[in-house]
Amino acid sequence: MKDALREGDTLARIGGDEFVAVLSDLVKVEDCQPVLDRLLLASSEPVSIDDKQLTVSASIGVTFYPQDSGDADLLMRHADQAMYMAKELGKNRYHLFDTTQDDAIKIHRQKLLAIRQALDKQQFVLYYQPKVNMRTGAVIGLEALIRWQHPEHGLLQPNEFLPVIENNVISIEVGEWVIKTVLMQISLWQKMNIHLPANISVNIAAEQLQQPDFTDRLATLLALQPDVEPCRLELEVLETSALDDVHHISETMNACIALGVNFAIDDFGTGYSSLTYLRHLPAHLIKIDQSFVRNMLAHNDDLTIVKGVIALANSFKRQVIAEGVETIEHGTALLHLGCELAQGYGIAKPIPADEIPTWLREWKPDLSWQI
User: Fold this and answer.
1) pTM of the model
2) What is the distance between the alpha carbons of residues 321 and 198, in angstroms, rounded to a whole number?
3) Which pairing describes strands 319-322 and 341-342: parallel, antiparallel, or unpaired?
4) Scanning 11, 53, 95, 331, which has its CA 20 to 30 A from the CA of 60?
């Protein structure tokens, strides 16, 4: 390995089968490649012991100063991280430490920590968006939508923090917090004698729904509020969710339905498995994704998709609701297509829990929808 280095380079054995090489006076990053190739070749040369040929290979992690502007210890750690990446990629190779990627990882970890602290400090709040029957004016439900009341940045929308916890265990804890909070809120409204709609819906991430103990966890949360009927809770499964085992998910949903809970398929039409989900998942309600509804008045393709989803829902004997109803005209067009259920800014924006009773009392549908 020493012979593989240039004059002025340094090689040290730091323990066991680990070595450190310091390559100096490199003009550009690519200048190290011939040396690294020679080190790999030297490491892989067969060794004869007792008439047996033994071969080993090396995995090399590389970092560069001053691009990686740490002290000696930090440079060693970064090279070590890159070495383990070389091992994961198949060994007998080298891997360059990516300072940009490392910075992104650090930022991601900081964001995860901030969300964990927000959960512990009860900084999350729920807003509720009404779902209505446009023709009759009946409020058929409310959708619970999470917000982060950040102490420095104010009220943050879900797209500003939920992607950070996707496929992370924290997403399950946040999901359970939402269900628990919704059930507590229903209980509070009932004690206030508020005339509530049929159900309050909660979005469920695939990560949470696919947990082996999801049904048991849900039963535990329901038991904490014995005065709330389980049918008051509706769980919305994203149609774009990567559901690894549709059969298992179907069994889980049926077990939850046995508890009294209902299901809806959210953002229908945006994924690749729409018909599979519609056929196998026991959801009583399909939600047409707002992107199609919002553009249906201007784009024939979106209008065709909306018509198709309504027809599919009718064929499979499912209820259908349109998201993204922004204007009276959107509502009118949907009614002509046979879709009476809707939600969107044209009906109501998401509302804080304490304002829901007033909205329920004062809500009236547009007169043109009732003709």
Assistant:
1) 0.77
2) 15
3) parallel
4) 53
